[in-house]
Amino acid sequence: MAKRIKLLKITKIIWGIICIFYVWLMSDDFYTVLKTPEIYHLGGEELIADGWLYEPQKLYLTDCAISIIWFLIGLMLCLFQHKREKLKYGFIVHIITTFIYVIVVNMR
């Protein structure tokens, strides 16, 4: 039982760091696209000769905002899971659904 609790604490710390990194990364991307959209190839999502052609700016910003909110939820689950035992399941579901999303998006 003690090993399980220690593993959960280590997992929370690692996942919290990952969530902080992605919130920072997506916030920076959101701000950059908002302020200087000309550096992005906005218009549709496909591979072109000099890189990727991204989806329309509004859709790209919406995707960034949803990602920021999603990883903020993960960070909150990491921080407050110790106060309520039920949040442990939310924490585990958050990790699993994030990995499924990453796998599905990268299979396209």
Tell me the structural class: mainly alpha
Largest sheet: 2 strands, antiparallel
Mean pLDDT: 79
Total domains: 1
Low-pLDDT runs of 5+ residues are none
- Please give the alpha-carbon distance between the first and last residues: 40 Å
Fold and architecture overview:
The structure is a single chain. Helix content is 73%, strand content 6%. It is mainly α and 108 residues long. It has a two-stranded antiparallel ribbon with strand order 1-2. Helix 1 runs antiparallel to helix 2 and helix 2 (57-80) packs antiparallel against helix 3. The longest helix is centred in the N-terminal third of the chain and has 34 residues, at 2-35. The radius of gyration is 17 Å and the shape is elongated. The mean pLDDT is 79.
List keywords for this structure.
73% helix; elongated; two-stranded antiparallel ribbon; 108 residues; mainly alpha; single chain
Would you summarize the structure shown here?
This protein has helices at residues 2-35, 57-80, 87-107; strands at residues 46-48, 51-53. The protein is mainly α and 108 residues long.
Give the topology.
Layout: H1 2-35, E1 46-48, E2 51-53, H2 57-80, H3 87-107
Antiparallel strand pairs: 1-2
